[in-house]
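Reopening closed ticket. The problem is back. First fold of the pair:
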Amino acid sequence: APGTKTLTSDVATVDISNADKGYIMINYTGTSPKVKMQLVTPADVTYTYTLHKGNYETFNLTDGNGRYHVTVFENSHDDLYSTALSEDFDAQITDAFSPFLYPNQYVNFNASCKTVDMGRQLAKPCSSDLEVVTNVYDYCIGNITYDEDKAKNVKSGYLPDVDEILDSKKGICFDYAAVMATMLRTQNIPTRLEVGYVSSAYHAWVSVYLKDIGWVNGIIEFDGKDWELMDPTLAASKSEKQLKSFIGDGSVYRTKFV
């Protein structure tokens, strides 16, 4: 957050210096214990996030070029919020893939993370991005088990800690997706963390961009001829027969947010 271009109020700073790289950073310095940020994209999609006091947090501009609107809301009482900052800004992103390569609030990592190092180890013997995706996929479904208790009790605003998930070897769909996105993004493979519905279940998964193929929606299995949609949480918690029956041709996946 270099501060060369900022939108400010007395309690919040929105650093848009790197909007051309596909991200903004926000620092809330007020006293409200509950703070929300809304980002309205050029496609008129509204993303709502929880802000945490005292540190810059990163948010990616996943809708590409155009005019965005950012609003910071402070909780006044009960479920009522007041506006602390409300501004428009334009983004002209020089590399369309950059929003899907950087860390952000949902896929949070740095150079010292164990998860980044594990991604590097998994990628080292590979000769193609597809091999990297396969190794990362196999590692996650083989080493992380689905945490049923956490899924039942997770609170609104929960954010994955990718190293904690790697150490505990268990997590929910959001955790699987964040770990995989961390490993793939740090190997220069554009990766979208997507949130939406699989049939009637609220869910998170990842999509990757592979050279000569394009975006592959949902994590994948490749048998040398055909692609099959298969996300890491379902692959880790269901048998192959159950999985294919549940996923089918992918039409049960409905993306709400990227």
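Second fold of the pair, where the issue appears:
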Amino acid sequence: MKARALFVAALVAGASYALADHGSSGPALIVWKGAGVGLLAIWAAVHARDLDGWLIAGVLALGALGDVLLDAVGITVGAVAFLAGHVVAIWLYR
């Protein structure tokens, strides 16, 4: 899949999830929730040319994982994924 298609798919997934998340639930909605940022993480990885690029891709991937785990497993496990993403972000920004 071309990088531009990944970016557009990420935008569509993110925007459409915001519209769909009204009273729905289930595994498909959980996957949909992570798809926007998850696809953006893949897009960032495709464009990564150095450590900073890989770190931002990792931050995005851990954010998507945290979003999914919040609903699929629970707040503690999701929070750990978000914490890991924040640690990677701190490393990147330092």
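Update: turned out to be a display glitch only; the data is intact. The chain has a mean pLDDT of 93. The helical segments are 3-20, 27-47, 51-72, 75-93. Please close again.
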